[in-house]
Design goal:
By secondary structure, this protein is an alpha+beta fold. It has a domain at 95-207: endopeptidase domain like (from Nostoc punctiforme) (endopeptidase fold (from Nostoc punctiforme), Alpha-Beta Complex). Helix content is 58%, strand content 17%. The protein has helices spanning 2-59, 63-102, 120-130, 139-145, 196-201; strands at 113-114, 117-118, 147-149, 157-160, 169-175, 178-183, 187-192, 202-207. Strands 3-8-4-5-6-7 form a 6-stranded antiparallel sheet. Strands 1-2 form a two-stranded antiparallel ribbon. Helix 2 crosses helix 3 (120-130). The radius of gyration is 48 Å and the shape is globular. Mean pLDDT is 72; it is low at 1-71.
Length: 212
């Protein structure tokens, strides 16, 4: 009997010792798993923080960099605008001079406004209308409606005082000191501002812009 009790006690002790050892092994591994998960969470948090920080990094770029970029772009924008304006003005001037010269030799008709015959202001009005610029009917009204210029360019109007005081004759400046007009003696023709008759009667040039 005593031998049976001793054997049982020995078995319990051996089993308990093995279970304790096993439990100790499990306990040793549990912290390791926990620490690994904690490290993974730390990496994720760091990644999230880095991603969230990107917008802040972009936003903290100096404002003067954006201002400098805008300032650098402004001259280019103004240059492009100026080029478009010059090209547009040149296009209108070419259209005016081209259309004006189409009528060379057309007879002079007092009060005329068509290809069958023109007076000076009727001729100018007709040519400008072809280019989409609408002028008053008479030479003096055209003179006062335009913008004064010191040096005429192709497409500007040149005015003269001829048969009455004030602007009474008008032509279209072609450049190089020459202009085209409806002369009462020879119809539509080209003359020079340097000719004594016209230089003595020249009173100025005016410019008109197309209106939208």
């Amino acid at each position: 009997m005593r031998s049976l009790l001793a054997a049982g006690l020995f078995f319990v002790l051996v089993f308990s010792t093995g279970g304790f050892a096993r439990a100790s092994q499990i306990a040793q591994h549990v912290p390791a798993i926990g620490n690994s998960a904690s490290a993974d969470n730390t990496d994720l948090a760091s990644s999230a923080t880095s991603a969230e920080a990107l917008p802040a990094i972009v936003e903290t770029q100096p404002a003067y960099e954006h201002a400098a970029a805008a300032a650098a772009a402004a001259p280019r924008t103004l240059t492009r605008l100026a080029v478009r304006v010059v090209r547009r003005a040149s296009t209108i001037a070419r259209a005016l001079t081209r259309d004006a010269l189409r009528f060379l030799g057309t007879p002079y008709v007092f009060g005329g406004t068509s290809g069958y015959g023109f007076d000076c202001s009727g001729y100018v009005q007709h040519v400008f209308a072809m280019a989409g610029v609408y002028l008053p009917r008479t030479a003096d009204a055209q003179y006062y409606a335009g913008s004064g210029v010191s040096q005429p360019r192709a497409g500007d109007l040149v005015f003269f005082q001829t048969y009455e005081a004030g602007p009474s004759h008008v032509g279209i400046y072609l450049g190089g000191g020459r202009f085209v007009h409806a002369s009462s003696s020879r119809g539509v023709m080209v003359s020079s501002l340097g000719e004594s008759y016209w230089s003595a009667r020249y009173i100025g040039a005016k410019r008109f812009a197309r209106k939208h």
